[in-house]
Amino acid sequence: MKDTWLWKQAASLLLVAPLALFLVFFFVAPLATMMKSAVSDPVASRALPTVASELKEWDRASAPPADAQKAFAADIRGIQDDELFGDLVRRLNSAKSGFRTLMSKTKSAVSSDPNISDLTTIDNRWSDPAFWIAIQDAASSPITDRNLLAAVDLTRDVNGSITSAPAGTSANRDTLIRTLTTAATVTICCILLGMPFAMVASSVTGWTRQLLLGAVLLPLWTSLLVRTAAWFILLQDNGLINSTLQAVGLTSGPIPLIFNRVGVVIAMTHVLLPFMVLPIFSVLISIPKNLMPAAASLGANPVRSFYLVLLPLSLRGVVSGSLLVFMSALGYYITPALIGGAKDQMISSVIAYYATGAANWGMAGALGLVLLIATILLYIVYLRLSSEEART
Hints:
Blueprint: H1 2-39, H2 42-47, H3 51-54, H4 66-78, H5 82-95, H6 99-112, H7 129-140, H8 146-151, E1 154-156, E2 162-164, H9 172-203, H10 206-217, H11 224-234, H12 240-247, H13 261-284, H14 291-297, H15 302-330, H16 334-339, H17 347-357, H18 361-391
Antiparallel strand pairs: 1-2
Helix pairs in contact: 1-18, 4-6, 9-10, 9-13, 9-15, 13-15, 14-15, 15-18, 17-18
């Protein structure tokens, strides 16, 4: 009997193993890597192994003592890997502008003269404590909150206190707010369009219902890039929409619908509408058909019947659809990049820049972690609402 039970357990594990491996390699591992890169900064501590200990007693108000400068020069001289040196320069330059030229100049000088103990003879910028603060902060620990703070336009001052980043140095917070605002706008538009469409689709049967569902599912069968390119053509000044509006006399000239927020919202609403319609439709078809006629027989007009009967019963589908649309909209990249202007780019564009343009995986991971936390919080709120609804 025990052998049979063990065999059944082993067979169950074998059946689940492919799915478990898929989740580990394509879901858990990328998330863990992203979170690690957001808080991990080992480049400086690996490239500068001795200078951190020499700077421990430094007052951070003036140039450090000669021993610390000597240790830094020795660390720089000992870097033989050009890739490691390039990563160190990028890391330091992201904390304090000017390190690119300063580090190249310093490396050449200390390599040719090993006895240099006063780096101000190489460049007067070494007398500025801000450069040494950046070195100390980078080399002191491989774990840092710098990227996470920078993701929301915060930083640490010379005393280690968290403060707002200087004006003009970063716009991540504005981009995050723009992303949340755009996602919320798209969600509201999907509700306004998806609710009536789902009501009509649930009220009919046969081929009419199939036709309506096929129409709303059609975007899912087409590439996202193709759909976005189609809206790029439709929304132009001489596109189909503006040409039709002018032909029927509603406008005297073209309405700006592209390279602005309006075009982004229109295109994203079209792409994400199925994720709103389907949850609402699945709830509506489970509602008894005699409730609305019963409300009408008790004297309620159609509007009152909708708000008092149909809307409360369909709210679960609306909340589910809103959650799907909002979370999907948070990570959109192609549609805002093609349809929107410079002030309409969402946080995914910034993540792409840090990952591919600036090769700053720490900042890319930090911004991705901020989006992940926002998504998890939304899902927790949804679970709380669902559990409260189930209890009532």
